[in-house]
Amino acid sequence: MIMIDGSYILGSFDGHKFYTLEGKPAMTSDRIQGLVKGKNYYATMTWHNVPKDRRVQITWMRGGKYPGMPFNQQMPLPSELTLHSTDEGPRLRMNPIKELDKLRTKTHKWKNIVLKAGENPLAELKGDLFDLEVEFEPREDSDTIFDMRGNTIQYNAKTQILSLGRVRSKLKPIDGVIRLRILLDRSSIEVYGNDGRVYMPCIVLPKKDNL
Q1: DSSP state at residue 101
Q2: Which residues pair with 178 in a beta bridge?
Q3: How is the chain split among helix, strand and coil, in percent rounded to 5?
Q4: CA spacing 20 to 30 A to 31: which of 13, 20, 61, 88?
Q5: Whole-angstrom Cα distance, residue 197 to residue 211?
């Protein structure tokens, strides 16, 4: 059961009441802190009877203003919810649905790059829509920054903090590696950290001349 703020309770529903994994009626205090960070997330919904028993969710990205556009609200990209065993017990993860891969029209790849301060291997890329998958080993006391049409996603190795604008979340490396999936649309950025352990949806309006 997922709350409007992204927190959740694991258990079962009998048609009348929701019970925790321990079998007691669920209460607010049973909530697990959500993997969702930020305020542009509300009113969760999932599809029922998706083939292969997948659980796909979409929400409302509340709080946005869209001057000059033919709409006044939006939803994020659909995400698939999965459960995983951890040292703390079962935990939820969220990742973009695999069907989004079919929307890619051109792909660029880089491997085994050792970045130096001020270097930018992506400097020549231009566009208004991006789907970036990146895996990197953060060096001690380093800041790794992605500037997506004027919007900054940053990872600080010393504090182990991932930030998207004012939205911040702890994100520890796994086997020394940080993995990010960053999807930039014309009015939003969505960041998935470490295979869906952290999710940051954010409404943004990049300037048209910033590609």
Answers
A1: G
A2: 136
A3: 5, 40, 55
A4: 61
A5: 29
Q: Please give the distance of CA 168 from its chain centroid, rounded to a whole number.
A: 12
Global confidence as pTM = 0.93
What six digits make up the tokens of 162?
A: 């991932």
Task: Return the beta strands (E) in the chain as ranges.
Answer: 11-13, 18-20, 42-46, 55-60, 79-84, 91-96, 130-136, 143-148, 151-156, 161-164, 167-170, 178-184, 188-193, 198-203
Phi, psi of 200 (to 5 degrees): -125, 105
Task: Determine the Cα–Cα distance for residues 158 and 142; give it in Å rounded to an integer.
Answer: 7
CA–CA distance from 49 to each of 16, 46, 54, 198, 207 (Å)? 20, 10, 8, 26, 40
Using the structure block, give the residue that is written with the tokens 């869209």: 66
